[in-house]
Each structure stands twice: as C-alpha cells, then as structure tokens.
Amino acid sequence: MASVTLENISKVYPGDVYAVRDFDLEIRDGEFLVLVGPSGCGKSTTLRMVAGLETISEGTLKIGDHVVNDVHPRDRDIAMVFQNYALYPHMTVEQNMAFALKMRKTPKAEIQERVAWAAEMLGLEELLKRKPKALSGGQRQRVALGRAIVRKPAVFLFDEPLSNLDAKLRVETRAEIKRLHRQLNTTTIYVTHDQEEAMTLGDRVVVMQGGLKRQCDAPLEIYRRPADRFVASFLGMPPMNFFEGHLQQINEKLWFINEATSLRLDQAPNEWLAGKSKRHVVAGIRPESFQLGETASEGNSIAATVQVIETLGSTMDVYLETSTGKRIVCRVPAGQLTEGQAIAAHVSPQEIHLFEPDEAGDFGRSLKAQRELVV
Ligand SMILES: Nc1ncnc2c1ncn2[C@@H]1O[C@H](COP(=O)(O)OP(=O)(O)OP(=O)(O)O)[C@@H](O)[C@H]1O
Ligand SMILES: [Mg+2]
Q1: Mutate to test the pocket of ligand 1, among 13, 20, 195 (most ligand atoms within 8 A of CB)
Q2: CA–CA separation, 258 vs 279, rounded Å?
Q3: What is the pLDDT of residues 50-85, one digit of tens each?
Q4: Final residue belonging to a domain, choices 228, 244, 264
Q5: Mutate to test the pocket of ligand 1, among 9, 43, 57, 189 (most ligand atoms within 8 A of CB)
Q6: Domain interval for residue 73
Q7: Nearest CA to ligand 1 atom 14
C-alpha cells in the first residue's frame, strides 16, 4: 500500500510536443483515482510515466516516500492492466497468473496459494487449465485482473481495461473492479474516456484536457461545481446547454439576460459580478435541470418550441428551439408532448452555472473564490 505523488510532472515528446504539462497530484493510500478526458489529452502518458514505461521529462514522481523517476518498472511494486489484456497466448490461465510471481522467484507453494486465492476471488476456478484463445473477452479481462492481483502490488494501474467489452459486460466488470477495490483497498489509478466509468468508480476524478489537469474532485462535486466550461461540457449526458448573454443588476437582484430570455440568478449582485456596465458571460444549464410547462413565468423560463422528442423509458430527451434559433436539450420525466408545441422551459436560479465567455470559461472557479471572499 502506498500513496503516489506527481509533482510538476511533464512529458515532452520530440518536436517540443507537451503530452502532459506541469501535472500535480497526490493519490492517497488506498484511493481509487480516475483520469478521464478526451482522446489524446495525456491520460495514458501520465499512467505510463507512473508505471515507468515512459520516461519523465520534468518533475518528480514518488511512490510512498521514494522518488522513483529512475526506478525500473519491475521494481516499482505496481501492476498494470491494459485494454488489450496482454495475456501470453501459449500459457494457460493458471500459468499467466503465476508468471510474474515465478519471475520473482516466489516459492512454489505461495504461488499456488495466491493463484487459487485470485481465481476464487474472480470466479476463474473452472478456467485455470484453458488458454486465452478459449476464453471470452470478459473472461480474458478477468484473467488480466487476476494476474495483477496475485502480485499484491502497492499500486494498480488500469488503462481503459473495459474498452473491448460489450456494454453489458462493461457494467458487470466495472462492478467487479469496484468490489475488488473494496476488498483489497489497493491504491488505484484508472484511465478511461468514459464519463460513466469515471463517475461510478472514482473516489476522486481528474478531468484532463490538452495535457493539463482541469479539475480534481469527488465525482459529484465535479458534476455540481464544474471548474470551467470544458469540464462542464465533458461530464453529463446529454451535455450541458450553454447560453451567451450578460449580467445585469435589476432591483438588487442579479439577472442573466440575452435576446431570448431573462433569468434570475441566486448570486447577490456585487461590483465584481455585475459592475457598472453589462458583463458578458456564458450561462450553463444541465438538461436535467429544466422543467417543462405550458406557460412562461418571468425570471425563470425560456420560451421555445418542441422540435424532437426521444423517449428513453422513464425519461425523455426533448430538443427545443427558441425564437432566436437557439437549440436546447432537456431531460425530463416521460410524458405527453407533441412536436411543434410551444413550451416554456423552467429553471431554478441555483441550477444556473456561470462561466467566462473565453474558451476556458473558468468563471466557476473565479466565482467560487469570489464567494469565499464575500462570505
Ligand atoms: N511516442 C509518442 N511520440 C509523440 N507523441 C506522442 C507519443 N505518444 C503519445 N503522443 C502524443 O501525446 C498526446 C497524449 O497521448 P496519450 O496517449 O497520453 O493520450 P490519451 O489521453 O491516452 O488518449 P486515448 O484516449 O486516445 O488513449 C497525444 O497528442 C499523442 O499524440
Ligand atoms: Mg490512452
């Protein structure tokens, strides 16, 4: 068991390509930490530097109290599980699981005991004599998990271990990984581009973009208080709706205003937020934050027309368009609506997120800082 500490870690590939930039993170002993982000954002590179499969260009990496920048992967006391399983095809399940222990000259009796323990834990007892080609994808991935746990390493590293499984198996194996972590409590770093995996597995989630750490927090915290517009749009399905507009103070209250609507906000007006002039901002509203009604009410609704209805069972996604041509998606309980119908989408002031209008849109972060100053 150990913590893993990344201090100002960067990875620069030839040609001055920064795959990871100035990455700071402490993964606590026993924590399940998820790195999530779009393709190419540097997740695998970060993980591979922790594993020792990639050199570290700048910064310090510690496992426990030891600096391991120059320690061979074999000596880092970690086990990694890959997307493609990386099993040895000519070995049986049992031999695959025993291999790393054998290489480390573990006594035979202990190898047998550990393989039996891992096989029982993962329900692999019946498959021990089979070779990988005689296994399903899900079974192969369980063997890969078994091979990692028999080593009883200080740290587990997972790189998209469920990507090759079908939807049902993904969910099952995801639950299995969570159960394993509860039982073993081994420090884990888990890479995925799947937000659902990130939200369900992580004690904390790091959202990455362009080699940078955009936010690191508990999953619900990230969902409720995204630090910037990228994080807000990356987590949540369907994605958050964004509206351009400006802030204005009217009768001691702060409002978000654009040509289609005026919405009351829950922030108290102050110099910094509203200023004397109109401050340009982007408002973010999650699809599930809307309630649909027939009549508009001043200060908390947007008038629109129903364009498309997608029924999902207990809920439905309703695509609306305002008079100015702005499209909005709402996720609401399934009910009676017809395409072409005029409607009002209501939202309560607490459900409106504010972002800077620039690309990063980290108004959320500044707003939080501002709140702390005001309180
Ligand atoms: N060996 C390499 N040489 C040069 N650039 C590389 C190399 N490996 C990765 N990169 C670049 O570094 C960036 C980060 O790659 P990385 O594989 O870490 O992304 P990722 O987040 O794991 O993406 P994915 O979700 O597609 O697996 C990418 O822009 C990639 O093109
Ligand atoms: Mg990757």
Answers
A1: 13
A2: 12
A3: 999 999 999 999 999 999 999 999 899 999 998 888
A4: 228
A5: 43
A6: 4-228
A7: 42
Cα(45)–Cα(263) distance, rounded to whole angstroms? Answer: 43
Overall average pLDDT of the 135-148 stretch: 91
Question: Tokens in use for 126?
Answer: 């019946």
Residue 196 shares a structural domain with residue 168: yes
Mutate to test the pocket of ligand 1, among 44, 80, 207 (most ligand atoms within 8 A of CB): 44
Token pair for 17: 């390509």
Q: What are phi and psi of 120, to 5 degrees?
A: -70, -40
pTM of structure: 0.90
Residue 229 confidence (pLDDT) = 92
Q: How far apart are the C-alpha atoms of 345 and 296, rounded to whole Å? A: 8
* 25 CB neighbour count, 10 Å cutoff: 17
Are 30 and 90 in a shared domain?
yes
Cβ atoms of 85 and 96 closer than 8 Å: no
Residue identifier of the C-alpha nearest atom 19 of ligand 1? 40
CA 63 to chain centre: 23
Distance 97 CA to ligand 1 centre (A): 29
| pLDDT class of 374 with cuts at 50, 70, 90 | very low
Give the pLDDT confidence score for residue 274 in this predicted structure: 53
Alpha-carbon distance of 332 to 315, in angstroms, equals 6
Task: Lowest mean pLDDT of 210-214, 257-261, 272-276, 362-366, name the range.
Answer: 362-366
246 and 204 belong to one structural domain: no
Structure confidence at residue 373 (pLDDT): 37
Name all residues whose Cβ lies below 6 A of ligand 1: 13, 17, 19, 37, 39-45, 193
Please tell me whether residues 97 and 222 are part of one structural domain.
yes
Q: Which of 228, 262, 296 is the last residue of a domain?
A: 228
Q: What's the domain count of the chain?
A: 2
Strands 155-159 and 187-192: parallel
Length of the chain equals 375
